[in-house]
Amino acid sequence: MNWKAEHGSSALINAIVNAMPMGFSVQDAQGRLLVLNEQAALAIGEDIARLRGNMPFGVRQAGPERIARRRERFLRRLAGHPERLHERAVIIDGKPRTLLVTDWPVQVGGQKLLVCTSIDITERKRFEQELELLAFYDQLTGLPNRTLIQKRVDAALIERAGEGMFALAFIDLDNFKNINDYYGHAIGDELLCAVAGRIAGQMRACDTLARISGDEFLLLINPLEDPQSLPLLMDRIVGAMKEPFFIEGRQVLASATIGTSIFPLHGQSYDTLQRCADTAMYYAKSHRKGSTCGFDSVMSDAIVRLDMEQRLRNAVRGRHFRTYLQPKVAIRTGKIVGFEALVRWIEADREVLGPDDFIALATEIGLIDAITHFVLEDVADFLPRLQSRFGENISISINIAARQASDILFMTSLMDYLQAQGIAASVILELTEDALVAAQIFQNRVLPHLREMGVRVSIDDFGTGFSSLSKLADITADEIKVDRTFISSIHEQPRNQCILKAIESLCQALRIEVVVEGVETAEELAYLERFTSIQFVQGYYFGRPQSVESIFEAGPIITGNYSSE
Fold first, then answer.
1. Which residues contact 64 (CB under 8 A, 6 or more apart)?
2. What is the pLDDT of residues 226-255, one digit of tens each?
3. Nearest to 217 by CA among 183, 258, 179, 276
4. Residue 35, SS3?
């Protein structure tokens, strides 16, 4: 290649390098800049003419120590040790910029060189920071938001695992809605910002304050060297909140209530610790607003109940319930004459919970109707198969809560369903004596319709409610079920024997069938056979509640021996 061609190629390469939309440079093993363009020179901070052919370690009035550090860093990069891709903060034209730098060592003509490119990503970094602010920071106060505080608590959980403590403080402004309504939202927003600043004035630089909702803040105290110091800090914050706030020429008075929890004493996760602090805050608020309270074992019941409530709501949504059946047996023939439908809650881990574990809560929070309808649907499905197996006269008893008995809408929907399924004559509704006595609505407006449909009514757990035989005559029922409290070891309980005889005599006069519940021993059964004319029994001695699949696969688990005498 002749000189002109070589000169032309070199000029073309230089023109291309200078036209590149990024910084580009090549250094030899001593650090001399063999090739660079204007953008690379701007990043280095020196005139391109002075840099080309020289080592850039002394630019920007660097002293001997800084020059040595730069030379050492260059040699590591030349050896290929550091990351090839990294960010570098520089000043270009007096403004801070962020460069994404890539460098890699190469061998060319037996000479070791370091090739470096740099791209200005300042605008991209600014956009990322804006996204981070939107994702992790509250737009009003500038504080970390719920997402970021959870990340920091999760980091603290890892940091303090095995040793050390930290605390969470749930801070709630008292009556903030009233302040907003009275002064307006603009002053309300200013108050939230002022509150954030006042709380921040009481905390350390290593702590984190977040706004997690409208008037709620969460404070991470990490580390917590001494748990005894936590109430003192909370008292200072509560006190600071009671000092007047001056906003737009107005004096605004406010207060805050605080609940705290401590890792690892009160939990091993963000959700648990936050929930414990929240519970402690509400406990404090229920006693006196503008106070503070630490979580303790007394509040654990509230946490357990809340957890149970959430699990129960999810179970209803997912229909995680099954209907078990317990046989009702004729004493003297051993024949199964009916079944009681008993609902079971099947948890995700396959644990089976009985009615005593959840029915009261389900009634309190308004889920009992849905659960009862699950049972009704199962009964409608089971009944034809049960009648085919055990006879057409087989009945199924369904428990109705006291609240449901006087709920016209619920009882109407129940009756409509029974009628639509054509199973009314085979169903017995079991209600407690309290419900029948107290629910005049049921007696006057529901019971007549049940009678027309052929639905029978049973008084469940008789003897545990009003326990007054005189009331029995006032209750229109087809059956009573004597509670186990009267039957347990009845062969050894003369007083209970007398009560049972009185119940039996009155029911015979009123033509009400008697079913004895809770028979568990041969001695109890023998007494009932020999000394009473009661015809029907139910209890573990005859069969435990079991799924309908078990009944059809193996038959009911009947453990009693039946006398034909």
1. none
2. 999 999 999 999 999 999 999 999 999 999
3. 258
4. strand
